Amino acid sequence: MLSLIGILSVASYCDVVLGSWATPGTVLTDGNVRRCYDEMEKDSDISHLLLDTTSGENISRFCGRISFLKKCVAKFEHQLSNSENTEYLQKTQGISTFYLNVCPPGTDLTEKYKRNANCFQLIKTEILSCGSDLPSMSSYKMKNDLNARCCALMKHRDCTSWAAGDKCGKEAETVLEELLQRYYLPQLEGCTERHMLSCQQNAGQDSSVEDWSKTTLAEEWRKHRPKHNSGETNSAYYWNVLVVYFVVFCFIT
Fold it and tell me: Which of 94-98, 142-146, 209-213 has the highest mean pLDDT?
């Protein structure tokens, strides 16, 4: 049932996005910089961005659209006060970061992303599912509760990248980890390994504190990710414990 809902959500999303993003030309010609910013902000959450760039053709369409809107902003930003412009820049920071890491040709991350983009189509349902658990960045909790924000962002990154690794391979997993790290960089400021340990409920494990915004999150996250033992491993463990108890009982009696 959940899979069906996810598939229907993806289909609905694609219909809306491809229809609304196809022709941004009128935005630039009317010279309204606010409309340019509003168009950039539309569907700029990370789940929509990932779903809209799952093929070379879609990446080209996305990059062309954002490039067009950025030119609009550059041409007409004088219409805004400094405070207004700063506010808009903050609101569109995520999509700008995504654009800079997916669109410019020749960079290592860009080429790897394009190489794995077709495979990302296989995890559309997972992308939506992972994103559905992520609170809005404008919510009180995400703005004011550092621990909650750190945990939510790491949970989303972990969920999305592991889905990619499971369906698409190691490179795809690494690409999404790095991309999400850059996308969330401003929100990760202040998140340390101590927060990660708290999220993972490993309070007894001591380690040095590092700033997640300045280190490789993927490696730190792997260090403390709970290990998932197979059923066979658990069975063997309990069988060995039973044997030890039996031997001790026989020795005592």
Answer: 94-98
At 9, the amino acid letter reads S
SS3 211: strand
The encoded tokens of residue 238 equal 């309990």
> Taking Cα atoms as reference points, which of 219, 131, 127, 125 lies closest to residue 177?
219
Q: How many CA atoms lie within 13 A of 226 on its CB side?
A: 10
Structure tokens at 183: 């996308």
Helix orientation angle between 93-102 and 170-183, rounded to the nearest 10 degrees = 140
pLDDT tens track for 158-206: 999 999 999 999 999 999 999 999 999 988 888 887 777 777 764 334 3
Backbone φ and ψ of 211, nearest 5°? -85, 120
pTM higher than 0.70 for the full model? no
- 10, 40, 152, 218 from 204: Cα distances, Å: 41, 45, 21, 21
Nearest to 191 by CA among 175, 169, 213, 161: 213
- Longest pairwise C-alpha distance within the chain: 93
In terms of DSSP H, where are the helices of the chain?
2-20, 25-29, 33-41, 46-51, 56-76, 82-91, 93-102, 108-120, 124-132, 140-144, 146-168, 170-183, 185-188, 193-199, 217-224, 231-252
Contact 37, 4 (CB under 8 A): no
- At residue 46, the pLDDT reads 92
User: Residues 6 or more apart from 181 whose CB is under 8 A from it?
Assistant: 157, 188, 216, 217, 218
